[in-house]
Q: What sequence folds into this?
């Protein structure tokens, strides 16, 4: 069994609180135990070596020691994650703020709700000078585990998110550019993508 597949499964079920980093081992409830140093499919750009499973809990600090991200830990510990979809829990999807990207705050609703791609510049022209929306709400009718339609908030300004809001981020559209992550409370790419955000 692939440890990242197990991690994704626990995240999807909302069981991240059952994952225990215990020295040399990572315990997934009573189901699985993996060595903390087991290599994953994610590799470091600098060294080219795979990140170990333990990178899901900590990232290197400036001192070289591994320290957990307090913001990411708070997001994972948030009890809102235990709420079922549609029960007052409104998930957040982040998109890039750059207008030249394929998916933006302007066209994300058409893309995710209706499965139709409309170029952002067409949507901007259709708005005829209206201000850029701060948040777009979309409805998904068929979401696994939900009893009905689920509303999602889509935002493109991570700096406007409060600490509690980061616990609601369920997906991120990324460019792969460093500037996109500058207003995020996480220390690096490993922290961002291994702390219960998107998979």
A:
């Amino acid at each position: 069994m692939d440890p990242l597949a197990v991690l994704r499964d626990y995240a999807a079920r909302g069981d991240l609180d059952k994952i225990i980093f215990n020295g040399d081992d990572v315990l997934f409830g009573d189901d699985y135990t993996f060595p903390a140093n087991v290599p994953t499919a994610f590799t470091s750009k600098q060294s080219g070596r795979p990140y170990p499973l333990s990178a899901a809990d900590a990232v290197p600090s400036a001192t070289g020691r591994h320290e957990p991200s307090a913001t990411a830990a708070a997001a994972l510990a948030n009890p809102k994650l235990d709420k079922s979809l549609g029960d007052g829990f409104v998930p957040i999807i982040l998109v890039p703020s750059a207008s030249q990207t394929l998916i933006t705050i302007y066209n994300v609703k058409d893309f995710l709700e209706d499965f139709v791609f409309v170029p952002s510049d067409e949507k901007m022209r259709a708005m005829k000078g209206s201000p850029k929306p701060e948040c777009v709400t979309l409805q998904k009718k068929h979401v696994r585990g939900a009893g009905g339609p689920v509303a999602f908030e889509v935002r493109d300004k991570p700096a406007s998110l409060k600490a509690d809001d980061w616990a609601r981020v369920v997906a991120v559209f990324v460019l792969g550019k460093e500037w996109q992550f500058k207003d995020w409370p996480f220390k690096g790419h490993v922290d961002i993508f291994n702390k219960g955000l998107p998979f």
Notes: Residues 54 and 98 are 33 Å apart (CA to CA). Helices lie at 3-13, 70-77, 108-114, 120-127, 163-166, 189-194. The longest strand covers residues 135-140. The chain has two domains: 3-57, 92-194.
